[in-house]
Amino acid sequence: MRISTSLIYDSNVATINRQQIDVLHTQQQLSTGRRVVAPSDDPVAAARALEVSQSISHLAVQKENQGTAVDTLKSLDSQLGAIHDVLDYVRERVVQAGNSGTLTLSDRQSIATDIKAQFDSLLALANNQDASGDYQFSGYKGDTQAFSGNLSGVSYQGDQGVRTLLVSNSRQIPVSVNGNELFMNIGSVNGVFTSSTSSSTAVVSDGTVSGPAAYTGDHYGIKFSSATTYDVYDTVADPGMTGAPLASGVYTSGQSIGLPDPGNAATTEIQVAISGTPSTGDTFQMTPGDSSDMFSTLKQFVVGLENTSDPGYSQMVADTLGRLDNAMENVSRLRSQSGSRQVEVEALQNVGDDLKIQYADRLESLVGLDYVSAISDFQQQQTYLEAARNTFAKISGLSLFNFIS
Amino acid sequence: MAGLLSVSLTGLNAAQAALNTTSHNISNANVTGYNRQQVVQTTADPMFTGVGFFGQGTEIATVKRIYSQFLTAQVLAADSSRVEYETYYNQIKQVDNLLSDATAGLTPALEEFFRGVQQVAADPSSVPSRQSMLSTSEALATRFQAMQSRFQEVRDGVETQIGQSVDDINALAKQVASLNQKIVTAQAAGPNVPANDLLDQRDAIVAQLNQQIKATTSSNSDGSVNVFIGSGQPLVMGNDVFQLSTTPSTTDPTRSTVGVQLIGGGVVPIPENLLSGGTLGGLLSYRSDSLDKAQNELGRIAISLVTEFNAQHRLGQDLDGAMGGNYFTALSPAGQNLPNFVTGLASTAAVTATISDVGGLTADDYVLAYDGTNYSLTRTSDSGVVYSGATLPASVDGLSFAGTMANGDRVLIQPTRYAAANISVAIQDTRLIAAASPVAASAANTNSGTGSLTQPVALSLTGILPAAAAHIATPITLTFDSTLNQFNVTGAVPATIAYNPSTNAVGASVTLTNPNLTFSLSGRPANGDSFTISTNVSGTKDGRNANALYSLQSAKSLLGGTTSFGSAYSQMVSEVGSQTSEAKVNASAQQGLLDQATEAQQGLSGVNLDEEAANLLRYQQVYQAAARCIGVANTLFDDILSIMG
């Protein structure tokens, strides 16, 4: 076998070239900390890494939103707490006002003045604005004042939109409560129907329902035919309560009265209790649940306090108390809802932190560099390169011409 | 003595010739393509005498080059493939590096863009959020454009190099032809007297030609060779050269194709798949296999994103309560009239292509042709016919066509090629971002049941009045009827929605067809409970549509609904990466083959200096010996003379 002299040089140069390329590549890996410097180094890993980094970016967006959600929910919670405090204070005043026997007219007047102040503070809370000047309780209509009006009447200007934040891939968490739900749409005391009376000497209880399905929206009237007897009428068919009653009974103060289904007298739909001393001709009305709003509850209370000769004072106080309890219950319900959402987001935050570590790990294993093996590779390549250089120098020194003189 | 003198002289001459040749070999040791030469020495015809034959010394038969046609052909074949892959690799490496760049790739821009969208979704009324969405959108558009212009630079480079390569091939072909001529003249005495150095020169030129495009040769009896390129296209026939030239492609004027110049003028294009090997082969296959595809893939992501994003944006409502317009400037498939194949003049067709289905879009280019009866749509990449029929294609590969065509008209349709270059954000005013939904729902406060309805979102513009202040004609009411277990609907189609509180209380998704809205109902509504859906007025804090826009990021809208924008890009990265590493592996494999072939060829034909040094000594000794013989003859002659004297 022959070897061409120029081939010795060419192939040596080519070998050293290749080794230098290897050394450079390893050096690039070491300096960037990436095993995959260009997609061609590992096309599959490079593509997967892009997808993982997209997931990481999703996570970052969600994390931002989770932080915002927790802050927003915390601020909502403290607002709801403040509203609850106002209502609680008002409730104490209502209880105080209920002790009619010991209250003078001027006492009632001063309570009314106090309640007016509370009304204003409630309205201010309802029109709370967040840091960016958006109304907190106006639904989607962030730059529309949520409530307008005064003691004579307050109306809701917002809508029923619920603001949400994306806190995980599939969860849009509500972070707002609309003013309608919070202040305006408070169910009747028993959640189904409301009672009212014309009597000044007797009050009707909040009433109970046999079962949610039992009451199908009938209207009832109870009319006292004497101080001790009463008749029950279907006021849809007989608004004047002049015809034949559905049922009749003997009155005992505080005893519950069952109101039968107009179509089936054997079934009792709802029950109410009347206490006090009704007079002949006094009527009590039961109509399907209507909602009340906090502002009108306060207004009616103020009007009732200021009205010196209102015969229904005690019914008014009882009604106000019932409505306030409902309003407070409504606030508490929304508060606990916001609390449980906070818990949910905090749980998601923890999951997100775990996921973030997992994704970082995944990314590292896809394109990251194993420094130990890379450094060892580098050393090895360096050794090879040096060996190639040294031997090349030796080989190129060998020539028969050196011996010809 | 006279005999001794003349015999010695032949030896002296022969040794001198051998020394000359050895020195020639040593001098040319580093000349590329040089094949070592050897003096072929034979014994001179002997002289017959009565007692037998007396040798007459030596003579030089010829100087031959040590050369193997077979080994040289092997080197040429390996070298041509190596250059092809190396060219391919050097080109695709540029794209590979571009895609890999953590800051210059598309992924970070895409992520930032959707992050901007989500910021608006999270805080729709915030002007800074909206501004940030506009900025990230601008950045995304710029990134698309930058990548596209990089692709375009690479493409321009490829086109230039194709032209240069063709010029080189022509120049080399001329050199081969002229060397053919010289060799024929030089070898007039016959093939036994080879013009070694001219042959070497010609082989070296063919080797250079072979690096531009795969070249094969066949020898003629007069010593000239014929050169064929690619898959048998003759380039040099003896003294004649068939010049190549580049012309704009008949299917895409922006790309050049290689053809043969006819003697009477005109160019006959050579199909690209016949032009393999060498720089030219590498460039052509890179252009069609990788560059076209990658550029179109990028364009497909751009045009899909723009189309989908705009469609969703138009379903939203901006801060002023107006329906959203296009967020990005709308992109449409590029069309270009090609020469009519009947008249040869430019087509007069007026055809527009529109995207009918983003999921159906491919990364191909098409030629739409009309032959007087039928329209046909053909892929340019592989000439596959995707549609043929008497009407313009209604929806083929995500495209629909409208317009008029004359007999023989041809139109080049490039749905995705220029999309990434033309992407731009259409709105500058932050108030025009349509983050809200056009409708909002509310429950009546008189409702006594627990039924509730989620805020509706629009699925399409059906029944939505973009121009009017009220986006739906009349507010829609849904009233529950407990006896029939249904909602009676007014102001929308359908007129009733079945809803059974005992089974649907956990939530039932409802879609209205006109207006086209969707929402879900849940809970136990009481008889007569009602809900109203009306135009969303002053919904500044409503981010429903922004959320829908954000969800496009992970929506699988491409490739028949299997791939998201991000995944489409990572697929493209992986494809280019695979092609690059394939080219790299192939190039190094071919390098290995070339090394082996070269070693074998050089083993035979290359100059080994040690061998030449030994030869130098050997021929020097022969020379000295022959000279000594002359010296002896001289002494003998002197002896005779001294006897005489």
TrEMBL record, chain A:
Pfam families: Flagellin_N. Keywords: Bacterial flagellum, Cell projection, Cilium, Flagellum. InterPro entries: Flagell_FlgL (IPR013384), Flagellin (IPR001492), Flagellin_N (IPR001029). Residues 3-140 form the Flagellin N-terminal domain. It is found in: Bacterial flagellum; Secreted. Coiled coil: none annotated. Belongs to the bacterial flagellin family. PANTHER family: FLAGELLAR HOOK-ASSOCIATED PROTEIN 3 (PTHR42792:SF1), FLAGELLIN (PTHR42792). This is Flagellar hook-associated protein FlgL. It comes from Uliginosibacterium flavum.
TrEMBL record, chain B:
Keywords: Bacterial flagellum, Cell projection, Cilium, Flagellum, Secreted, Signal. The keyword Secreted applies. SUPFAM superfamilies: Phase 1 flagellin (SSF64518). Residues 6-34 form the Flagellar basal body rod protein N-terminal domain. Residues 1-17 form the signal peptide. Residues 347-415 form the Flagellar hook-associated protein 1 D2-like domain. Residues 605-642 form the Flagellar basal-body/hook protein C-terminal domain. Coiled coil: none annotated. The keyword Secreted applies. It is found in: Bacterial flagellum; Secreted. It comes from the Bacteria. Residues 93-328 form the Flagellar hook-associated protein FlgK helical domain. Belongs to the flagella basal body rod proteins family. NCBIfam families: flgK_ends. This is Flagellar hook-associated protein 1.
